[in-house]
Amino acid sequence: MNLFSIVAAAALTASLASAQTIRVGTFDKPSVVVAFYGSPQWADTLKAKRAELAAAQKANDVQKAKDLEAWGGTQQELAHRQLDGDAPIANILDALAPQLPEVARKAGIVLIAPDLPYADRTVQTVDITDLLLDCLHANQRTRDIVRDLQKQEKPAAH
Q: Rg of the chain over CA atoms, in angstroms?
């Protein structure tokens, strides 16, 4: 085999490899926000913070009680801003991080991107919203809210 054949074979292999489809997981952020703040995991966090608040009040630790009440207000404001799309969802993605490799395996994807404003024809998007709702143990009520929210987000086709 001559040098030209080797170079041509390498170029052909590289071009075929670059044309492979890449599967990327995407998800509906508002749906994940609703599911996170309705999740058992978040309920446990709130329960622990309420217990801390009760203990601080019982101990007359005014500063700690104020700090915990401020934390609650901050978290509520963050949730509203995340739902509106005005704040990043880093805290939610951090909570989901340990489960993302399994989500990727189940969905057959190599990457998860909350936003994918453009992808060429070599990228296939896969909606992983339901898998993330599963990770958050979303109950039927939460799933109904999410479904209604998604209907509101998508304008009717004319």
A: 23
**Is residue 35 within 8 Å of residue 141, measured between CB atoms?**
no
**Is the CB of residue 108 less than 8 Å from the CB of residue 5?**
no
List, in sequence order, every beta strand (DSSP E) within 9-90: 22-26
Q: In 3-state terms, what secondary structure has residue 119?
A: coil
Closest CA relative to residue 120, chosen from 10, 15, 21: 21
Instruction: Yes or no: say if 87 and 78 are a contact pair by the CB < 8 Å rule.
Output: yes
Domain residues of the chain, as ranges?
23-153
Q: What is the pLDDT of residues 35-89, one digit of tens each?
A: 999 999 999 999 999 999 999 999 999 999 999 999 999 999 999 999 999 999 9
Please, which pLDDT band fits residue 114 given cuts at 50, 70 and 90?
confident
What is the maximum alpha-carbon separation in the chain? 85
Task: Give the global pTM.
Answer: 0.80
Three-state secondary structure of 92-108: HHHHHHHHHHHHHHHHC
Question: In angstroms, rounded to a whole number, what is the distance separating the alpha carbons of residues 100 and 83?
Answer: 21
- Phi (first) and psi of residue 61, to 5 degrees: -90, 85
pLDDT at 107: 97
